[in-house]
């Protein structure tokens, strides 16, 4: 992962399987066009991810990366990506705005997962448990491009995705 983009490679030969978000068709080439306007500096997206079934939970820039100033729109969010999606338009499964974080570069820790529950720590001393929608009903829906309103989502070529339920938000323990 670099600059908020996420890549999947074939472990046997290193060939790119897919890139998220796609920059230019085809979405499976893992390249940026030489004439592209994308900035590729160190922008705090060097992090581990967690996987459960076909869902990769990762702090990534998401579809907002192609928007002006979009590189920062992934901070504070956990994306659930469908690693087996048949098309790039179905890559995003869910997006969670993680509560109690500073929304800066390293405001979220490394996620972990068990039985469809994703756990992530924040820079404000919280541990947050987020349920995959296959495990608990989602809190609602949102646009896969986080800067786009739900009402305009499909018309602008994006997908409606789940906003997963936050099962627990445990703050820092202070003894008395």
Written account of the structure:
By secondary structure, this protein is an all-beta fold. The protein has one domain (about 5-170): Thrombin, subunit H (Beta Barrel). Helix content is about 0%, strand content about 30%. The protein is built from no helices and twelve strands. Strand 1 (about 5-10) and strand 2 form a beta hairpin. The N and C termini lie far apart (about 45 Å).
Compile the SSE list and pairings.
Blueprint lengths: L5 E4 L6 E5 L29 E3 L2 E4 L18 E6 L9 E6 L14 E3 L2 E5 L5 E5 L8 E4 L16 E4 L2 E5 L6
Give a concise summary.
The protein has strands at residues 6-9, 16-20, 50-52, 55-58, 77-82, 92-97, 112-114, 117-121, 127-131, 140-143, 160-163, 166-170.
Proper CATH architecture: Beta Barrel
> What gyration radius follows from the Cα positions, in whole Å?
16 Å
The succession of helices and strands, N to C, reads: EEEEEEEEEEEE
First CA to last CA: what distance?
A: 43 Å
| CATH topology group | Thrombin, subunit H
Please give the largest β-sheet. Answer: 4 strands, antiparallel
Mean pLDDT: 86
How many distinct folded domains? 1
Uncertain regions: pLDDT < 50 for 5+ in a row? none
Q: Could you give the count of β-strands?
A: 12
Note the total helix count. Answer: 0
User: How helical, in percent, are the residues?
Assistant: under 10%
Q: Which oligomerization state do the chains in this entry correspond to?
A: single chain
| Main CATH class | Mainly Beta
Strand order of the largest sheet: 3-4-5-6
């Amino acid at each position: 992962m670099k600059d908020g983009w996420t890549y999947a490679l074939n472990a046997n030969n290193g060939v790119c399987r897919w890139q998220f978000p796609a920059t230019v068709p085809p979405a499976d080439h893992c390249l940026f066009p030489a004439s592209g306007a994308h900035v590729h500096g160190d922008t705090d997206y060097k992090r581990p991810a967690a996987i459960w079934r076909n869902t990769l939970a990762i702090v990534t820039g998401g579809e907002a990366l192609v928007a002006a100033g979009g590189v920062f729109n992934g901070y504070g969010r956990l994306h659930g990506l469908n690693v087996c999606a048949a098309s790039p338009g179905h890559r995003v499964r869910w997006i969670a705005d993680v509560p109690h974080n500073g929304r800066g570069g390293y405001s979220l820790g490394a996620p972990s997962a068990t039985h469809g529950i994703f756990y992530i720590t924040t820079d404000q001393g919280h541990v947050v448990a987020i349920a995959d929608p296959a495990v608990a009903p989602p809190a609602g829906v949102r646009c896969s491009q986080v800067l786009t309103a739900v009402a305009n989502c499909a018309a602008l070529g994006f997908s409606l995705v789940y906003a997963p339920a936050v099962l627990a938000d445990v703050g820092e323990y202070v003894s008395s």
